Amino acid sequence: MSALSRAIETHQIDAVLMIGGIDGYDSVHRLYAERAHYPALAIPMICLPASIDNNLPGTELSVGADTALNAIVEAIDRIKLSGSATQRCFVVEAMGRYCGYLALMSAIAGGADYVIIPEQPPGPGWHEHMITVLRRSRDAGRRTSIVVIAEGATDTEGHPIDAEHVRRILTDDGTLRNITLNFPNAAASTSAIVGGGSGNAFRS
């Protein structure tokens, strides 16, 4: 911290503008907390929320979150369109760290059958409940099943839940054969594409 304080004095920095996510917020907070010990840090500090995770305090929607959400919804729409002919089940893992905003909102907008988010970890027997919901959806006439998972999702005991885990449950090669949906071609779809989504009018 002392080296940073000297650098601010040496370069005559008058203010700090942080554009970033939760780690950037934490760094600025640390600078602010050290003002009493380093007078050079007593300068204006501003945080501009920019994170697709949308997990930042004091803001309803951070820069990048809407673009990422639109990218996921577009991916789900494409999956539904191409998968309807084969009646497959798809698992989409959305980014967001330990915030389920992208997973939840994309599941609602994309018409997913089931969603798992960190803020509401499923309890014991969650896989049976998931399969019951998917079966009910198929019985109602839906040709494609979509399960959306936030990348930081866990169950109530802290066990991670990811796309591959759910895929194994939904296929015959999993360990829970007694509750399988018997979709031998269930597919796991990851979320790396959301970081490079196109801009849109809402964000602009």
Description:
This protein is α/β, with parallel strands linked by helices and 204 residues long. 35% of the residues lie in helices and 14% in strands. The protein is built from 6 helices and 6 strands; from the N terminus they run H-E-H-E-H-E-H-E-H-E-H-E. It has helices at 2-10, 22-33, 65-83, 101-110, 126-139, 163-170; strands at 16-20, 45-49, 89-94, 114-116, 145-150, 187-189. The strands form 2 sheets. The chain has a 4-stranded parallel β-sheet. It has a two-stranded parallel ribbon with strand order 1-2. Helix 3 (65-83) packs across helix 4.
Task: Provide the descriptors you would attach to this structure in a database record.
four-stranded parallel sheet; single chain; 6 helices; two-stranded parallel ribbon; elongated; alpha/beta; 204 residues; 6 strands
Number of E-type strands? 6
Report the C-alpha radius of gyration, rounded. Answer: 22 Å
Categorize the overall geometry: elongated
CA(first)-CA(last) distance: 37 Å
Order of H and E elements: HEHEHEHEHEHE
Outline the low-pLDDT stretches.
173-185
Helix proportion of residues, in percent? Answer: 25-40%
Mean pLDDT: 82
The total of helices stands at 6
Secondary structure class reads alpha/beta
Strand order of the largest sheet: 4-5-3-6
Beta strand %: 5-15%
Major sheet, described briefly? 4 strands, parallel
Task: Briefly summarize what is shown.
The protein has 204 residues and is α/β, with parallel strands linked by helices. The chain has helices at 2-10, 22-33, 65-83, 101-110, 126-139, 163-170; strands at residues 16-20, 45-49, 89-94, 114-116, 145-150, 187-189.
